[in-house]
Amino acid sequence: MAAYRIDAADLSYTQLNQIIRARVAEGTKEIEIENVLGQRFIADGLKGDVRITIHGVPGGDLGMFMSGPTCIVHGNAEHAPGNTMDAGTIVIHGSAGDAVAHSMRGGKIFVRDDIGYRGGIHMKEYRSKRPCLVVGGSARAFLGEYMAGGLIIVLGLGTGPAISERGIGSGIHGGEIFVRGEVPPHLLGVGAKISPAGREEKERMAPLIGEFAGYFGLDGESLLSEEYVRIAPSSSRPFANKYVWE
Amino acid sequence: MCGIIGVIDRGRKEMDGSLIRRALSLMKERGSGEGAGYAVYGCYPEFKDCYALHVFFDDIHVTKGALDETLRRWGEIVHDEEIPTRDQPNLRRVHTPWRYFFRPDPKMMSWSTSPEDDIVTNLVMSVNTEKKGALIFSSGKNMGVFKASGWPEDVADFYRIQDYNGYLWLGHNRYPTNTPGWWGGAHPFNLLGWSVVHNGEITSYGTNQRYIQSFGYHCTMFTDTEVVAYLFDLLVRKHQLPEDLAMKALAPPFWDEIDRMEEKERELDTAIRLTYGPALMNGPFAIVVARPDMMLGITDRIKLRPLVAGENGKKLYISSEEAAIRRMDPEVGKVSMPRAGYPVIGRVES
Amino acid sequence: MSIGAVPPRYRISIDRDQCMLCERCVESCPYGVFRSSDGRILIDSRRCTACHRCIAMCPRDAIDLKERPVDYRSHPLWTREIRESIYTQARSGKIILAGMGNALPYPVIFDRLVLDACQVTNPSIDPLREPMELRTYVGKKPSRLEIRKDEKGDVELLTKLSPNLMLETPIMIAHMSYGAISRNAQLSLARAAKEMGTYMGTGEGGLHHALYPYQDRMIVQVASGRFGVDIDYLERGAAIEIKIGQGAKPGLGGHLPGEKVDEDVSSTRMIPVGTDALSPFPHHDIYSIEDLKQLVRSLKEATEWKKPVFVKIAAVHNTAAIAAGIARSSADAVVIDGFRGGTGAAPKVARDHVGIPIEAAIASADAKLREQGIRNEVSLIASGGIRESADVAKAIILGADAVYIGTAALVALGCRVCGNCYRGLCPWGIATQREDLVSRLDPETGSKQAANLIQAWTHELSELMGAAGINSIESLRGNRDRLRGYMLDEGLMKVLDVKTVGA
Hints:
The complex is a heterotrimer.
Chain A: E1 4-7, H1 13-25, E2 30-37, E3 51-57, E4 67-74, E5 87-93, E6 108-111, E7 132-135, E8 148-154, E9 174-180, E10 192-196, H2 199-216, H3 220-224, E11 228-233
Parallel strand pairs in A: 1-2, 2-3, 3-4, 4-5, 5-6, 6-7, 7-8, 8-9
Antiparallel strand pairs in A: 9-11, 10-11
Chain B: E1 3-9, E2 15-16, H1 18-26, E3 36-41, E4 51-57, H2 60-74, E5 75-82, E6 96-104, H3 115-130, E7 134-138, E8 143-148, H4 152-159, E9 165-166, E10 168-173, E11 189-191, E12 194-200, H5 205-213, H6 225-238, H7 243-250, H8 255-259, H9 263-276, E13 285-291, E14 294-299, E15 308-312, E16 315-319, H10 322-328, E17 335-336, E18 344-347
Helix pairs in contact in B: 1-10, 5-6, 7-9
Chain C: E1 10-14, H1 24-28, E2 34-37, E3 40-43, H2 53-57, E4 63-67, H3 80-92, E5 97-98, E6 113-115, E7 136-139, E8 147-149, E9 155-157, E10 164-167, E11 171-173, H4 183-196, E12 200-201, E13 218-222, H5 231-236, E14 239-243, E15 254-256, H6 263-269, E16 277-279, H7 289-302, E17 309-314, H8 319-327, E18 333-337, E19 346-347, H9 348-353, H10 358-371, E20 379-383, H11 389-397, E21 402-405, H12 407-412, H13 435-438, H14 443-467, E22 483-485, H15 490-496, E23 499-500
Parallel strand pairs in C: 11-21, 12-13, 13-14, 14-17, 17-18, 18-20, 20-21, 22-23
Antiparallel strand pairs in C: 1-4, 2-3, 5-19, 6-22, 7-10, 8-9, 15-16
């Protein structure tokens, strides 16, 4: 079945989402949106198993509260794609802004290039739901801040190192972050500890790296064979020692 | 939340205002219809040696005479006229915008090393503090700020912004928070050649404003952004710090980062923080600052507001959103995010 | 005997069912409240100072203390304190001495100021997960930087910085001399200062050799008595503080009675054993502001301009102008001690009636220095009545760079603020030189407690700053916009440069 096409030029996000919802309700499985420029909230709270391909630059909060669909972006995304997302997949053929995957509960996000500040902030997992974020390029400061669960991989395939800014995993108390290459200890945030990723860890990474490589035409095997470090919580209650009762 | 955008053509090629109007209207979500404005550099070539003073008059019959007299005491009014406007259905006209092309008499402040700039600065401060129904909101040479309470398109159409040409433009779409939306409170804020558009809220305003006041600057616009323009004027024009070091005063590296630096850099950065601590701007901000020869964008040091930059040939764009840049220039190349607290600067070619 | 005995201040009672006759109370009380006789603990309540040592040491919680067990006829004007002062003076014809700080119920301005926090329009900052900078430099700062940029773009700093003290938290420990407090108390505080990356003052009592290991964390004081001052002392300190006055007794000198001048105190103060240590009212080489400048500069000259010199004054009516004068004397920091500042002993009349609150003093000094365009060139240190982290935050917002804590630091060592410091019998081993009492205070434990207090306040200060969306202490300093007055009068709000709540 051919994809349903939408020309988003001069459409507001509400109009755009109304069209998407109507098509999904009718059972459309493939939607292609052209000329997207700055519309926020695309697929916000959307359920179902539709695949939405977006051409252009979607505005902030792409796929927020989304539960199930797949969004493929050909272009850069602005702030917080996958914000509080529940299930589904976001694939970005480009970069994304700050707070990518903010408070994400489940599903997967793949970003080919770079992400901004506070990527994966407060991602969390519960029972079978485990959110994942894979970044091909680099991430900025405060990656995985407050992280409570889930998995982040930063591959650093661009020109610079995967991460060169402070506060990685600051306040992390669940989940894990894998970074290709080395991470100087002074970049770690409070409550984060670092160790080399061993075989067992790589097994956890393998399916995600494979999927990432598949989207962007890379060799997953050789990517996986590189050296990674794992950044994880030193405790599930890093700040329990800070308080005292009156 | 506010939307900001700036563009500079480093080869001084002129652009009219229609593109920035389009870009700003794309960021409608970031405003509330209570303030918008534009700054354009290179718009008054016929009076390029005069200070272009843009003034909001409350009741022109009552207030203009006094201002004329004050200006004549300090120099010569080469030309003055009402700024052409067109009524818009959604914009309430509360002031009469006027412009003077003014030439200060340097003899009036012969002791100063920059008497003309100082005369104009003092005029702006005294007229705006006196609050006698006249507010000077733009005072640079061969540039002008056009702003009002309203949505970006309405403000643009009110001033017919598309009729102006310039090599550097700033635009701002306001969502006022701490202070009411009023014409003077709209951005850009300007002093002499400096214009600032700002997104965020400066939590150190009380400190910054009191600091700048002890150097004779008076904040009169009831909003935090104004202080940014004055800090730039103090640090760069008066104290002659290079822009990148002035930026380090406003958004310095953290002490733990300074501690890890090589000795020479550590000494310099420590000296900047010690000397200019009260100038440090805290809280969330993304700003774009312009001067006739450059445009600069910077965020707070922990990146609490968005800012991206893109280039196309000699053009540098800085904005809250990439989409706005692409609205102006679909051909723009890679759009990148400047590092928190570090400026991205575009300069006109000499 | 025409006046007779006044009612006892406190009444101690023992729950005889609970008491197991362990006699810890007898051992604890140096004032002699308890006595053991025939299998019974006898009580002399009249000797009690409410120091709580017995209560703290009783394993069965068997001791009870009541304040004012016998009332006078109540009267709003002729209070108990007034009447008893009259009896005392009628009997003696003397000046009444008292310990600790101002004991009159003046309103506490700090408690009528409330702090701001972010909601929506800007985010609060999580101080544990994001950087939060409390580092404070105390000392002279340049008014501007001179910089030369060469053709390669390399930057050369032409301005030379004056020496500054680097504090990891804006809380310092105030000057309390050896003599006024014990060696173990000083040791406890010095270790805490070192551990927390801050500084403490020596007071005017010289520097005991036991404190030499902490000398780079000590601010040595030069006061009107010049006790313990020689070039070696000056060279040891991290900074030097000239004490002009103190909040508890502005304008008055000091008097350490000869009985407190034992062998050790004598050697640090450099005066013979058993002689009174008299600190004159003024410095007799400072009768005017230009004389102060001479002393500042001679101290700098003596120490080769390597150390910051502070000048401490009591908060008095004209503090702002005085502070501005001091700022121009080449001093690096001005310490202002408010009228609630503590003391070992002061004439009660001065303690309770002279001087002004620190809140108003610091606010007006900060404003005056700004008005003169020199605020950032000199540091302002607030002291006198700083009780908790909120006071620190408010003092900084009102314009202080840092604060000194005295009484609070002693309370962290166990002090119960009983106010009998001048008697030299401090049961907590703090304000005493009696060896058996001094040994009650273990410097190991004491330093941990004092350090804990500073750490806890520092955490709280970070949280208050984070809530206000501020991640660097310099943005809190003088930021009066983040403070509101609650039930303060208009005149005072003008002095404090704060708006009322709701405005």
